[in-house]
Amino acid sequence: MTSETGFDPKLLDRFPTRERRPPGELEELERVWRAPGGWRRLTVVNNNYVGLYYVGSAFLFFLLAGVLALLMRVQLAAPLNGLLPQEVYNQVFTMHGTVMMFLFAVPAMEALGVLLLPQMLAARDLPFPRLSAYAFWAYLIGGLCFFASIFFGLAPNGGWFMYPPLTSKIYSPGINADFWLLGIGFIEISAIAGAIEIIVGVLKTRAPGMTLDKLPVFAWAMLVFAVMIVIGFPAVILGTLLLELERALDWPFFDAARGGDPLLWQHLFWFFGHPEVYIIFLPAAGITSMIIPTVARAPLAAYRLVVLAILATGFISFGVWVHHMFTTGLPVISVGFFSAASMAVSVPAGVQVFAWIATMASGRVRWSTAALFAVGGIITLTMGGLTGVMLALVPFDWQAHDTYFVVAHLHYVLIGGMVLPLFAGFYYWTPMMSRRALSERLGRWVFGLFFTGMHVTFLPMHLTGLMGMPRRVYTYLPGRNWEWPNLVSTLGAVLIAAGVLIFLIDLARNFRFAAEDNAGDVFGGGTLEWLPTGLYSTRSIPRVTSRYPLWDDPDLAQDVEAGRYLLPGAATGVRETIVTSPLRAEPQYLQRMPGPSVWHVLAAVFTAAAFLLLTVQLYWVGLASGVLAVAFVLRWVWETDWPMNAETAELGAGVRVPTYATGPASHGWWAMVVLLTVVGMIFLMAAFSYVFLWSRRPDLWIAPPPAAQLLAIVAGQAVAAGFALAAARLVRRGGAGRVLAAGAMIVSALAGAAAWALDIGGWRAAGLIPVASGQGATVYALLSLQGLLTLVILIMAGYVAVRVARGLVSTDRTSTVDLVSLFAVYTAAQGGLAALLARLFPGGG
Amino acid sequence: MWPPISTRSTLAEALRGWPAPALDPGGPAAAAIATLSWVLLALTGLILAIVLAAIALALLGRPAWRAWLSGERLVWIGGVALPIVVLTGLLIYGLTTTGRLAAAGPPGEMRVRVTGEMWWWRVAYLDAAGREVIHDANEVHIPAGRPVTFELEAADVIHSFWVPRLAGKLDMIPGRRNVLRLQADAPGVYAGQCAEFCGGPHALMGFLVVAHPPAEFERWRAARLRPPAPPSDPLAARGAAVFAASGCGACHRIAGSAANGLAGPDLTFVGARRSLGAGILPNNQGTLAGWVADSQAIKPGNRMPPFRTFSGEELRALAAYLEGLR
After folding, report:
1. Which of A455, A615, B131, B275 has CA 20 to 30 A from A487's CA?
2. Mean local confidence (pLDDT), A346-366
3. B122 and B98 in one domain?
4. Domain of B180: which CATH number?
């Protein structure tokens, strides 16, 4: 067995150890990991607490959006009903979709990742606990304020997909659309932050020995979920930015009269929007893949095929977005490609369904509420997937698109593919974090009502759509025979509501949060989250040799609890976890983890405030809030890259690892690479927008500035990149190396800023203004993105200088400089590319 | 008060939802899609039955069957082989049908231009040179048994043109012109509705396609090329005077009169339309008067302001005048 990092795998054979653990070791571990009490609980960063709050908040939004759905169904139960007037209904259905998709579905999956992954991987916490906490607070505060808009009649009313020109300033003059655009902004930030956390967590903080081949399927699903967020969310981030620029500053991205195109929005939105639904579905499929083996008491069949299926789904899902645009009049050949891809994406889904069936057949299912929800989910998902195949056929879609048939399809796949598995997960994992499990007796009622209600509500909608009822209608005429299916659907919605109500009662009666004296492994699961845990996750981190460690080693729980495995205490007296290599999970170093802190909370509050104040057009207060948010982020980041009190630490049995790492092995490096991928995708989407609008109206393009200028800009960015690279090398030299490194960073930042100023000056001199045409809008959008990054680099260069001045940078403490250098090199490269792209296209007029 | 729709009117007949219009084709395009739909329903029903049977056997079946179902083989057969075979066949079927339905018409085919407005349909019939020669709103007349090319545009936001009994839908997008070929096999009235959320009363943006026997269509066309005669009836004449004096011509056009506004629907032949308000009301003197007096109460948010200042006598006169425009 070869080693991935040079770590000798035979060292792990020393575990479990035999000697008694020293007295006070466990108490020290508990003390270090204790969560603050009272109002200080708000500063907590333990994934147990943050995960719980996160799941609870997501569920709250599920309930709120569910109430909106109930209102919609009552309104539609009879023709020309007067319960919800037109304008109210248009806000209600927009909020139902937006809240469900952005405030419930994705955050719920992210929250489950925060809650479960560290335990499932036997890590003490996620690699960036304050980042998840920040993401959570920004999401909660922002989400609640966003939802509150409906009480003021300011809720967005253009549909959850917000197509321009309907949502442009002319046809949506109020700030409702701005609430959506800016309100969604901080949710996008939360999602990206969570994605960074999960990618680094799954790949770098697993229990030693947990090779990729033994990774729990839920962790695989969360990994793909996070990568998909990194690739897919930037499209909607850019799209929302462009639409807000059009509304606020009249830059014509989507205005056909000036060379914009409404279809640009659709491409950007659906490039995000389709992967979004798989982002929502895959973790839930991961949940099913964890529950079915446990309730069937058999390992998951075809593990490798299932993992391949998850990867394939993630990949293919980025190639199907145009199936939301089959009726827009695109050429048959492009429509045909996307039809084929949309059908192909159902193959990996089928693989998972049959793997679950094979698992059930190979074991003997012990029925519980969790099992009922899991199997019910499989059936419902299959039905939804089949109607999806129907919709993938273009001629059928031409009839069914934008009708209640699609409403039926999307609810079948989302409820069957996500909500039912989520409820299964609630019943399954509650014993892990509560003193009591949920009630099996009430649980059967919850399942019966929810499952039945779901089918009674949505099955008739397939017919309703083919009967001619379009989506997003606040009422319909009598005499169209639409009354009966609508009434039946409404009755089903009441059943769903009853089921959810009983669930809430069950939750209130039985859920009592406990990290230590939880109800335990009630279902007999085999994966690591079922080990006895405290706030520090497990007492010692096990060495993993199989996919179901608790099944294959009956003594594991006892050994782990007694501290016979790795890191049985706080080796350096602070919170820590083991960082391991991505493929074979070989220990690499011990990562110091932060404890409770107020800075990320303040950063979150002011981030959310900035977005919301801008929405209500309090621009100066909003800007000030944004500045404060940045300041608090810097204060928070100040505490990273801190000296440890020992250079190496013992994991147990004489196995020692370093306490610090730089370069591609370090978790900070990985986080920065993921972040830069997000930024790069945003740039790619902006570049696409530019080229797309040029292809539509090349006659509106003016000639670019002279070529000599481009050389100057590229030279400037090359200087910026060069000095950034130099900084990373200089900091590793002794003597004045650190100061020179800080100086090099500052020069890099200034060079980048000068190149940017040349770029924008050149276009203004060439006579291009942003409001003039699609060219103006997209060129200035590219310049705005570059300007934002340039500002960030300027701030970070200053930050590096202050760190050097305070003596926090040394030859063996180089992470801060390394990461800022990486960011600066990327910024320079983007600046050069953007300048080149905008000058490549000939001017017609 | 919402005027009742007679169960025996042509509007009611066109608006009925049973049999389901998408599965009750009245033309070749819709027929091709309906056949495809039945094939899909049958196939997906069969696949669902197989999956449910597999689940039932996996949970409750005899040990021999359960042993057969466990392991990777089921995953390969059910999850890979079966879908690839079925989906490939379906894809070929779907793509060939798509190509056929999207094919352009021959150059000489009759052309109608429909422009989606918030929340009504501007209709113009084109002559051979592409000039708009007949203007109308919310109702399109075509000869039965022949394909007609529809040029679909949008004046403000994205709308979608959908007549389920005749064809699939096609969006109307500002800055683009989309082309849809429709054919109604038999004479009749076919209901359509906007199928892309366009804000406000999107739910009440319907229209009608009226198919005539070919000879009758030629007579209809010839009649439309001549503006209607001035009103002979004194009440209608009084209505014409009220219309002229109240500024209605600023938004509406009536050929042969001074009214030539383009912001709202063309009213030259409004009396002949089978519905009012874009497919949502029957067309009679009562609904005409009600719409003029307060269209906001019927279709909130629509672009026509209420005219509650008209007296009952003026409204009756206007209704008589408008009803006579046929």
Report:
1. B275
2. 96
3. no
4. 2.60.40.420
DSSP state string for A275-310: HHHHHHHHHHHHHHHHHHHHHHTSPPTTHHHHHHHH
Q: Are residues B240 and B307 in the same domain?
A: yes
Whether the CB-CB separation of A580 and A557 falls below 8 Å is answered with: no
Judge if B167 and B251 occupy the same domain.
Answer: no
Q: Which of A229, A377, A220 is nearest to A306 (CA)?
A: A220
Asked, for residue B34, whether it belongs to a domain, the answer is yes
- Tens digits of per-residue pLDDT, A436-488? 999 999 999 999 999 999 999 999 999 999 999 999 999 999 999 999 999 99
Q: How far is CA A707 from the centre of its chain?
A: 41
Q: What is the pTM of this model?
A: 0.96
Q: What is the DSSP letter of A566?
A: B
Q: Look at phi and psi of residue A649 and say left if phi exceeds 0, alpha if psi is from -120 to 50, else beta.
A: beta
Q: Is A459 on the interface with B (CB under 8 A)?
A: no
B residues 46-75 closer than 8 Å to A (CB): 47-48, 51-52, 54-55, 57-59, 61, 65-72, 74-75
Q: Are A398 and B167 in contact (CB < 8 Å)?
A: yes
CB proximity under 8 Å: A 542-571 to B: none
Report yes or no on B312 lying in a domain. Answer: yes
Phi, psi of B198 (to 5 degrees): -120, 25
A157 touches B at CB < 8 Å: yes
Is residue B116 within 8 A of residue B278, CB to CB? The reply is no
DSSP A651: E
Domain of B280 in residue numbering reads as 234-324
Q: Look at residues B200, B223, B246 and tell me which one is the last residue of a structural domain.
A: B223
Q: Please indicate if any CB of chain B lies within 8 Å of the CB of A387.
A: yes
Tell me the C-alpha distance between B322 and B315, whole Å: 10
Domain count within chain B: 3
- Token representation of residue A129: 């606990």
Phi/psi zone of residue B299: left (φ > 0), alpha (ψ -120 to 50 degrees), beta? Answer: beta
Find where tokens 């698109």 sit.
A401
- Selection from B155, B161, B162, B138 nearest residue B266 by Cα: B138
8 A C-beta contact, residue B300 and residue B309 = no
B240 and B291 co-located in one domain? yes
Measured between beta carbons, which residues in chain A are less than 8 angstroms from residue B191? Answer: 468
Residue B144 belongs to a domain: yes
Domain match, B218 and B124 both: yes
User: Residue for token digits 């026509």?
Assistant: B304
Distance CA B73, CA A494 (A): 42
Q: Among all chains, which residue has been given the structure tokens 């790069």?
A: A680
In chain A, the N- to C-terminal Cα span, in Å, equals 66
CB A188, CB A233: distance < 8 Å: yes
Give the DSSP H or E segment for B149. Answer: strand B148-154
Residues B219 and B250 in one domain: no
Is position B10 within any domain? no
Q: Choose one of B201, B223, B245: the last residue of a domain.
A: B223
| Residue of A466, A474, A484 to mutate when probing chain B, most B C-beta within 10 A | A466
Tokens linked to A59: 């569920």
Per-residue pLDDT band at B2 (split at 50, 70, 90): very low
A369-392 vs A332-344: helix axis angle to the nearest 10? 160
The residues near B24 (Cβ < 8 Å, ≥ 6 apart) are B34, B165
